[in-house]
Amino acid sequence: MAFEYAPAPESRSIVNIKPSYGLFINGTFVDAKSGFKTVNPATEEVLAEVAEASKADVDNAVKAARAAFPKWTKVGGRERAKYLFRIARIIQERSRELAVLESLDNGKPIRESRDVDVPLVAAHFFYYAGWADKLSYAGFGPNPKPLGVAAQVIPWNFPLLMLAWKIAPALACGNTVVLKPAETTPLTALLFAEICQQAELPAGVVNIVTGAGPTGAALVEHPDVDKVAFTGSTEVGRIIAKAVAGTRKKVTLELGGKAANIIFDDAALDQAVEGIVNGIFFNQGHVCCAGSRLLVQESVYDEVLTRLKRRMSTLRLGDPLDKNTDIGAINSAEQLARIKELSQVGEREGAQAWSPPCELPRNGFWFAPTIFTGVSQAHRIAREEIFGPVLSILTFRTPAEAVEKANNTPYGLSAGVWSEKGSRILAIADQLRAGVVWANTFNKFDPTSPFGGYKESGYGREGGRHGLEAYLATR
Amino acid sequence: MKAKTSLDVAGSNEELKRFLHGLPGVDQVGAEARAAVLGTRSIKTTAKAWAIDLAIRMVDLTTLEGADTPGKVKALCAKARQPDPSDPSCPRVAAVCVYPSMVPTAAEAVRGSGIHVASVATAFPSGQAPMAVKLYDTSAAVAAGADEIDMVINRGAFLAGNYLEVYEEIVAVKEACGSAHLKVILETGELVTYDNVRRASWLAMLAGGDFIKTSTGKVAPAATLPVTLIMLEAVRDFRQETGRQVGVKPAGGIRTSKDAIKYLVTVNETCGEDWLDPDWFRFGASTLLNDLLMQRSKLKTGHYAGPDYFTLD
Questions:
Q1: Is the CB of residue A36 less than 8 Å from the CB of residue A115?
Q2: Can you list the alpha helix ranges (DSSP code H) found in B99-192?
Q3: Is A400 on the interface with B (CB under 8 A)?
Q4: Which residues in chain B are closer than 8 Å to A320, comparing Cβ atoms?
Q5: pLDDT of residue A474
Q6: Residue ranges of chain A with pLDDT lower than 50?
Q7: Which of A101, A447, A475, B14 has its CA 20 to 30 A from that of B214?
Q8: B61 falls in which pLDDT band (50, 70, 90)?
Q9: Which residues of B fall within a CB distance of 8 Å from A2?
Q10: How big is the A-B interface in CB pairs under 8 Å?
């Protein structure tokens, strides 16, 4: 007799999605000349029509942010903290609404938007609210000054969380912002705009312009922007770095990754398997710091593989709003095509794909959780970021080989080490060229902890005290 | 799974220690995080009804008090046979669990019902008695009609690293059980670490235990979800290794249907459906049953009945 879990969908009635949304400029929603549709990737249902900001709209938004800047700086840290605390509390009060909307627009399981994304969003605002009146003690000199207007461009994988990572420190430091959410996931940013209104945040402090690449380009290239913060692909990061080179704009980039997750033979194997699953299948693998390259010590390879396959067979793929769903929808048709293409490349190059028995829904964008065995460093699936639920498994024999292979990538965002031996963890972590190294865990985030990359994974840090530096004129 | 010969690792205390200490460690944070995620599964409607009926069938309805009398035990047995007098479709529980002195009364009261009689033995709950007393305790309970024996391990010997002593006690008690099933109580609240829980689980299985059980219910903490998860992983891995299937019984502190369902989810996603059966998974509980009955009637009727609609046991 099998234990079949009945459907347990979270109700979407808590969210009131409007048929169309304007741009949030200077505290109000304004119309734009053209628009685009945002869909639910799990069903391809059109959720809303969203304004597409033109160059002139972006200019208006930057002007509004510029106009609001002097006063927002002058009110002082204690006053700014009040607003940030207020926003954090409203996020908590409206957490279910935000979680449902995030899952609808992004495709991620409600379990994650409810238990990970939204609580972290609130925590980020609480954390930086606490810094706002203590900037003189942050180690960046006495009374450090804000930069001015921040242009922020964020990706679709954690729409609201990336917004929080960008907006909370910027506002705490006294900057005003113009933020562009990703074109496939604009809705929670627009709900956040409503939250800014509800919190009575002064007009112009936060502006949200929706649109695609050209809108983003107009924003980062705008001459009256003092700071550019971008999270997304390394490819776009390069374009942005070139665009701002030679200007006064300060830049932080948080880009791609191909993280090594290293399992030593003395690891706590059951928990390591959980870590592997969490490392690559969390958020459908749409995670820049995903543990997409598994490095397993050869002496435990068979055992790890057996346990991993058994565990993967219990993963539940389907309706993102079902509270028992572990793996939701791929965010867009475009991303699905890229995942499929790289998986095919993997098979052509001689690696063996395996997925648990898993029925994919007919509509929407779906990809079964997949592992590739027989992968070597020379394979493209071991080098390129797939940004999907696809794990490449490699082996190593000695700690030195593990470190060498882990570092043999142009990226350097994150890494994981699994061992019950504390001295080994410290020694290996010390040699890994990655901005974040997780020991006996993976994909753990906290507002107090700085996050950012080495090498082509970008520069600058977000989160923690380090995250303030990106938004202050330090001296 | 492939049936293999049983592991032969108990030649000496040193050999046994090397084996137990060679098992993969347990990361406490990771194990607790996994249990917490399993606890967020949302079991509704048909799945909930199925799980509640299964949980009722898995209950070892227990009374282990100094104040137990034949009258109390008879009442418990009547409840075990017919948990909900207003609903004949309600399944009966798996077993009643009593002290050895109450076994004759219990055996008489459940005769013909298919309900097992479990008895705690081996100087329950402390286990601090001479070996001869523990063995006599066991054989007397079996002779009086118990077909399941819940023994306690020698925690003092375990914590002192005298694994062979613990092992040999279990082997001897198993022999004294004859054809009765042996549940080995690890008393995880006194073992404290998950590494110890994993080692004790393997030790009990190697020594021939048919079930491994978390607690006596007399020590806090009793059953917890992470401890049960570790034990489920142990029985899963043990079957993979030896071909022999061993049952798991969390006991103590499980009082609500919601909790019971979390355990069933954990069984389902750790060991799979082979263990979703009263032969392989039990709840040691007294107050749990009435909450299961209350939730069962709520699902059927759409409203909650007051506690007076459910019988005392």
A1: no
A2: 103-110, 131-143, 155-159, 163-177, 188-191
A3: no
A4: none
A5: 78
A6: none
A7: B14
A8: very high
A9: 273, 276
A10: 71
